[in-house]
Amino acid sequence: MIDEVFDRLVDRAWPALQRVDAGSWTLRAADGVTKRANSVLPLGEPEDLLTGIEGAEKFYADRGLPCVFSVGGGATPGLDAALEARGYRVVDPTLVMTARLVPGEPGGREEAGEKVELAEAPSQAWLDAWWSVDGRFGGDGLATAARILTGVPAVYASLGREAVGRGVVQGEWFGIYSMAVLPHARRRGHGREVLRALLSHARAQGTQRAYLVVVESNTAARALYERQGFTVAGRYHYRVR
Taking the complete model, does pTM exceed 0.90, yes or no? Predict the structure, then answer.
C-alpha cells in the first residue's frame, strides 16, 4: 500500500527520540518538539480499537503531552471516526508530494554568484535559520530538534544564512525536509535553488524518486514544488485531543 509506504518513510526520516511498540501501532515522543515526533503512528489493526486509543492516551498523559495521532492513508480503518467521536480535532491537513528523478537533469547549485552548500551535519547557522522559521517551542526545543534531525544520516543544504533544507536518502526514495527561507529573503528564488541542489544530490546518490510533505494551506510552498515537478500522491492529518 503506497500510503503506508509514505507513513513509514516519514517516520524513519524524522525519528522520535522515544519509540514504544503497542501492537502494530508506534507511540512516539520527543519532549513535545514537533507533532510528527510526538504522535501515534497507527498502522495495522489493534486487537481492540478503543483499548488501543486509551493506551495511547495514558502513554502521553504520563509524559505530560497531549495525545496526538498521525492519520494517513495507511491508518487503522475506523480510527479517524473513533477519534472524532472522542472529541479529537483535525490539525494541519498535509500533502505528500512526489517527483521522479530523471538522470542528467540540471541541478541548481548556483545563482547570481551565490552557491548552495551541502554538508553532512547541520551547522549552528543552519539550525538557527531553520528554527527561526519553523521553531514553535521554548526551552531547549532547538537542542531536542537537532537530536531528531541527526537521528538518521542526512544532507543539509544552505544558501548563505537565508535558506536551508534537509534531504534523506531512503533506498529508491529521497525525502526532503526542513525547507525554510527567512522572511526578508523570500521571493528571490532561494527556496528553489536549495530544492534543486537537494534534487541534484539525490540524483547523484542514485535515488529514483523524491517526496516531501507540505501543509495543505501553504500555497506558496506548494506552488514552488509543483513548478519543480512534484504532484500530490497522498495526504495525512493529525488528530489532537
Answer: yes
